[in-house]
């Protein structure tokens, strides 16, 4: 239960009013090292780094190796709306993943990841008073992944995830007479999710290698419940629960496709380009209605999401001095998001820089990354947000399955 609580906290580190819409801001399952490369990973396979973005990568692990990767981040936000500026801070645990061999041709992984996150707080003046809006929570994934090598160069895999979490959106109304009312919408998800992936690698010669990766997540209706709560703060009256209803056939997630191309040279240079597409326009969303059939919370309107990302990693000499054994990473991305605010689509782009610091007496690597991100709506910019993120990931690499026969 403590682990579930930790992951729930990680889903509340978002500090963006745009997370009010839909299921919040989406996460693409990138580790700290991958975020330093723009968030790429569909065609990445390495026996030394966990890649949840494509489960086909798990088979690349060495039969004697055990991997454990844990990431944290810290976010600083600067926002601007109608000439008024503000700033905020967030951060915490981001993900926990493990990977292990299952024989010589198979690998597995298990972990906890955020799927989406909600976190915001803002207010405005209304007739005869003021209001404030607050939101928190998010959806998380507890996943188990398996991967196998079909033939030389070709691997396939799947992630089976338990999708769980709660999002809460509150609106407080304050009157000049001193009374305060709360209107709250709660969505609770308890469901299963599946992702399948494949990778094919080809060695052009001893130093040059190319890989293509593809992943697919089928869309599905969500299971769980949603409801509204209304009550007067300070009153002894029992809160009214309004519109309690099942999510089935009323809310859904879309199909997701991802494809990536990866190039490696001499175990020193790695470059990748990824493309992601989600058909959110076809995803279901319904208004929350009361017993009289009146809508008390409106339905969400989505746009199709697509994202392009690119990144490079360079290791001067894996057997050289410390500086030469370090990993140097750079990347960037552009994201046309699924969130719509009125007739405005939300978009963001970012650039990143990172380093992998090898430890002195093991294969464990400490990954440090820096990221700048800009988010706003189009064509009306609404709120403009600028982020500076610092990510730290510890990638433990241990020979847990080695049996020393010499005493």
What does this structure look like?
This protein has 407 residues and is mainly beta. It has one domain (2-398): Outer membrane protein transport protein (OMPP1/FadL/TodX) (Porin), CATH 2.40.160. It has helices spanning 2-10, 32-35, 322-325; strands at 25-26, 66-81, 84-101, 106-126, 129-151, 154-175, 180-203, 208-217, 220-221, 224-233, 240-246, 252-253, 256-265, 269-278, 288-289, 295-297, 305-314, 327-341, 344-358, 365-378, 384-398. The chain has a 14-stranded antiparallel beta barrel with strand order 2-3-4-5-6-7-8-13-14-17-18-19-20-21. Strand 7 (180-203) and strand 8 (208-217) form a beta hairpin. The longest helix has 9 residues, at 2-10. The protein is elongated.
Key structural traits:
single chain, 407 residues, mainly beta, Porin, two-stranded antiparallel sheet, elongated, disordered N terminus
| Low-pLDDT windows of residues | 1-12
Q: What's the total number of strands?
A: 21
* CATH fold annotation: Porin
CATH architecture: Beta Barrel
């Amino acid at each position: 239960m403590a682990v579930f609580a930790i992951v729930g906290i990680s889903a509340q580190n978002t500090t963006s009013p745009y997370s009010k819409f839909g299921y919040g801001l989406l996460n693409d399952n990138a580790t700290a090292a991958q975020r330093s490369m723009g968030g790429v990973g569909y065609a990445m396979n390495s026996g030394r780094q966990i890649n949840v973005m494509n489960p086909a990568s798990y088979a690349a692990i060495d039969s004697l190796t055990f991997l454990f990767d844990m990431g944290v981040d810290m976010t600083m936000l600067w926002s601007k709306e109608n000439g008024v500026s503000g700033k905020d801070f967030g951060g915490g645990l981001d993900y926990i993943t493990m990977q292990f061999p299952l024989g010589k041709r198979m690998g597995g992984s298990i972990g906890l990841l955020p799927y989406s996150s909600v976190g915001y707080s803002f207010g405005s003046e209304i007739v005869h008073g003021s209001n404030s809006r607050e939101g928190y929570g998010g959806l998380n994934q507890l996943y188990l992944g398996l991967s196998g090598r079909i033939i030389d160069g070709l691997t396939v895999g799947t992630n089976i995830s338990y999708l769980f979490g709660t999002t809460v959106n509150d609106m407080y109304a304050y009157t000049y007479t001193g009374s305060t009312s709360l209107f709250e919408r709660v969505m609770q998800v308890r469901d299963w999710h599946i992702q399948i992936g494949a990778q094919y690698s080809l060695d052009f010669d001893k130093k040059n290698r190319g890989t293509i990766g593809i992943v697919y997540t089928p869309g599905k209706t969500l299971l769980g419940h949603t409801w509204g709560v209304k009550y007067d703060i300070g009153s002894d009256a029992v809160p009214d629960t309004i519109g309690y209803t099942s999510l089935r056939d009323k809310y859904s997630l879309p199909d997701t496709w991802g494809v990536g191309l990866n190039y490696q040279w001499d175990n020193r240079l790695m470059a990748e380009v990824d493309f992601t597409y989600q058909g959110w326009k076809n995803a279901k969303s319904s208004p929350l209605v009361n017993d009289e059939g009146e809508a008390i919370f409106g339905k969400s309107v989505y746009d199709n999401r697509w994202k392009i990302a690119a990144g490079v990693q360079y290791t001067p000499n894996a057997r050289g001095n410390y500086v030469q054994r370090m990993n140097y990473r750079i990347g960037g991305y552009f994201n046309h998001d699924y969130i719509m605010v009125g007739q405005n689509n939300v978009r963001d782009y970012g650039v990143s820089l990172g380093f992998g610091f090898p430890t002195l007496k093991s294969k464990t690597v400490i990954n440090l990354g820096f990221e700048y991100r800009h988010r706003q709506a189009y064509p009306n910019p609404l709120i403009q947000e600028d982020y500076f993120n610092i990510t730290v990931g510890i990638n433990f690499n241990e020979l847990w399955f080695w049996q020393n026969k010499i005493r």
